Automatic annotation (TrEMBL):
Homodimer. InterPro entries: Aldolase_TIM, Ribul_P_3_epim-like, RibuloseP-bd_barrel. Pathway: Carbohydrate degradation; pentose phosphate pathway; D-xylulose 5-phosphate from D-ribulose 5-phosphate (non-oxidative stage): step 1/1. One of its GO terms (molecular function) is D-ribulose-phosphate 3-epimerase activity. Keywords: Carbohydrate metabolism, Cobalt, Iron, Isomerase, Manganese, Metal-binding, Zinc. This is Ribulose-phosphate 3-epimerase. It comes from Cylindrobasidium torrendii FP15055 ss-10. One of its GO terms (biological process) is pentose-phosphate shunt. Belongs to the ribulose-phosphate 3-epimerase family. Its EC number is 5.1.3.1.
Length: 215
């Protein structure tokens, strides 16, 4: 059964604040952190054991694999829409000893993730907002894609990103998502640790129900 992984989308801009935020999130129960590429090596120096989930919302994602690997990235997630050869890119990411994630934007059907692609990738990301910025409204229309992917890939890490927080986590978790990216819901909260706890508990309980329904 996939376990709950909460990945705060780190929104700090100053390096000192960033390192402090990362440390605080990890102490608060976050297991993965979700950050922009230019700050990776700096953060890696400060927190050597960090797991950096690098969501590359870029054109030509093939270009940045080496830079991200050299900077200490642990997972390189690219957008299906940005490449013509996802399988070769997954291979290139694995060759640099990173995990590979593949994201689909809100208007892309989950069926583009073929069995071959999903089996090669380590994580599937269903965007629940249009890529670009934090603070957007969660798009419910994306939830059935999570359920479709979970039905086909019971053991895969399936991530959601965009507008996810205590008011939308139920839908994501019950559809089968187990990796949660949350920016505003965590960093805008007066008690971020509590938000992480709630997200994690909701996912763990949904995963247990999904596993029981299959038994
Ligand atoms: O990069 C993106 C969306 O483009 C996301 O990672 C957001 O940054 C998540 O932020 P919230 O939607 O949770 O505020």
């Amino acid at each position: 059964m996939p376990r709950a992984i909460i990945s705060p989308s780190v929104l700090a801009s100053d390096f000192g604040q960033l390192t402090a935020e990362c440390t605080r999130m990890i102490k608060g129960g976050a297991e993965w952190l979700h950050m922009g590429a230019p700050i990776l090596s700096c953060v890696k120096k400060g927190i050597p054991d960090i797991f950096m989930d690098c969501h590359m919302m870029v054109a030509e994602p093939e270009k940045w694999v080496d830079d991200i690997a050299d900077a200490g990235g642990a997972l390189y997630c690219f957008h299906y829409e940005a490449t013509s050869d996802p399988l070769s890119l997954i291979n290139a990411i694995h060759n640099r000893s990173m995990k590979a994630g593949i994201a689909i934007s809100p208007d892309t059907p989950s069926t583009v993730i073929t069995d071959e692609i999903a089996n090669a990738a380590d994580m599937l990301l269903v965007m629940t907002v249009y890529p670009g910025r934090g603070g957007q409204k969660f798009l419910e229309k994306c939830v059935p894609k999570v359920a479709e992917l979970r039905a086909r890939f019971p053991e895969k890490d399936i991530e959601v990103d965009g507008g996810v927080g205590p008011s939308t986590i139920d839908k994501c978790a019950h559809a089968g998502s187990n990796v949660i990216v949350a920016g505003t819901a965590i960093f805008g909260a007066s008690d971020p640790e509590n938000v992480i706890t709630v997200l994690k508990a909701t996912v763990n309980s949904a995963q247990a129900k999904i596993a029981a329904s299959r038994a």
